[in-house]
Write a structure and sequence with these properties.
Immunoglobulin-like; three-stranded antiparallel beta sheet; globular
Amino acid sequence: MMRTRLMNAVWAMGLLSLMGGCQSPGMSKKELSQRLEEPGFNTVVFADYDLNRNFSEGLFGPDKVLRLSSAGHGIGYTDTGTSEVWLELRNHTDHNYVVEARTRFFSQQGIPVDAKPVWQRLPVPANSSAVYREKSVGTERLQYRIEVRQAR
């Protein structure tokens, strides 16, 4: 009798652990909106979802992971009148990251003005930050969108 109860308890724990492991991690409304929202202008977009998102489920409950974040970004103007954007990336991990960033410039009406923006590699040291900069070609006032992804 005692052995049967013990076996049933072992089976129940095993079944519960399998059911917990088979569940796909769900997304909170905030995480879903992060994936679906329009990026807008004068902003930073992380093209690789794993770089700066939080995961709502982990093996032992919520697992909030923040690898890289934007510590600040903006646009300025050089002495020659061209636009220069900057982005400070903060690495929240204990290992070095190499990412790629590119800037898409837009007119004040939202029309893309760059033909093919180029990805630039940017090393971000562990528990530190790095600054990315890019200049426009023309002198008109522009809006920007900086995209960041893991280096390929």
